[in-house]
Amino acid sequence: MLFMNQSYAIANLIALVSGIVIGFKTQGLIVFRNRDNLLIFRFILLWSIIYTLTIVFIGNLIKIGLTAYTSGVLALPFSTILSFFGQKYFVFRTKT
Hints:
Elements: H1 8-31, H2 40-63, H3 68-91
């Protein structure tokens, strides 16, 4: 979306919504072997937090002079790590 002159926040939001729609079922089933559809609310909450943190991170990188593209690439490992551990320990945690 950046190539279409959208702001990084809008581009990231579109990616987030797409990821939520596709990712909840695929990650729940394939990665965490969980079929509980009610966990979508935790999934959305987690991704809302990750989105906010990522936008703040990207915004700060842009303020110090990096491009939106470079900032997005640098934010990717950060959001990926938050996503995995957030899903493992918050969204799809198993009861022991």
